[in-house]
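Let's practice the habit of predicting before peeking. Look at the sequence and jot down your guess about where helices and strands might fall. Then scroll down.
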Amino acid sequence: MNEFRLQCKLMGSQFELVVVAETQVFADQFFEAGIHEIKRIEDLMSEFKNDSETSRINSFPSNVIFTIDAEVHQLLVRCQKLYSLTQGAFDVSMAPLKKLYSFKRTEAILPNAKEIKSALSKTGFENILLLDNNRLCFLKKEMKISFAAIGKGYAADKVKALWGALGIHGGVINASGDICTIGQRADGNNWSAGISNTDWNQLLLKIQMPCAAVATSGDYEQYFTSNGKKYGHTLHPKTGLPVQGMRSVSVFSPSAELSDALATAINVMGLEQGKHLLNQFPQTWYYILDDKNKTHSNLPV
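Done guessing? Here is the structure:
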């Protein structure tokens, strides 16, 4: 067996696909199937494609019941449960608030209180009514959803499931840091994951994967600076401001979708409350770097 790698840009992010196969021909079959699946998910969940299912949902007026795609509805049901479990820290209704910011590693001005208040009036998952038969209703005007905090993890899980059904020996889906592993490496060893510091110049930790997926949320890729202060892209659903206190949160769990969502939620909840929540999930571990560069971890290493 050999390991074959392919890098490509999908869902606006850098993906790396790794396949354990006998030949390049077999590997290419898995690559093709994986890319097709990711593009299919992007067509459902991209808020930037005008013809996506998410864009169609975001065009809905308030207080009108619409039928939506069944797969998207099922994901929203899980997002609703995460919203409840995290006490609102994970919220896919943040799209109106995100429009106030540009996290392009440049100098910018924080939005003013009036702008933030206006955007917050259009958010809150409690104002999204999910009904049976794949129906949805926005209870506030100009509400919109964004799967940015869970979409890449979801895509990684879906490719893993597809590859498993196709009989893959082993592989990795790396969705810009949201990583899902399958089986073992070509040499029979387990896959390992590395956690870098927030400027990507130093490896903080390299471990054999304790489970199938890991996702990291932090201020190292998407951020802006204002008056000399750095602001990461994770926004607090209650204040509307970028969260402070942690530089990165990595969550290991059986699911990339869950790891992706929890990494964002812990950034919002803060260290102690976030650790308490994560300890309630089975087979779930964390590695957190706070704003003083101190590490907090319960990894079994």
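How did you do? Residues 2-43+150-297 form a domain with the T-fold fold (CATH 3.10.520.10).
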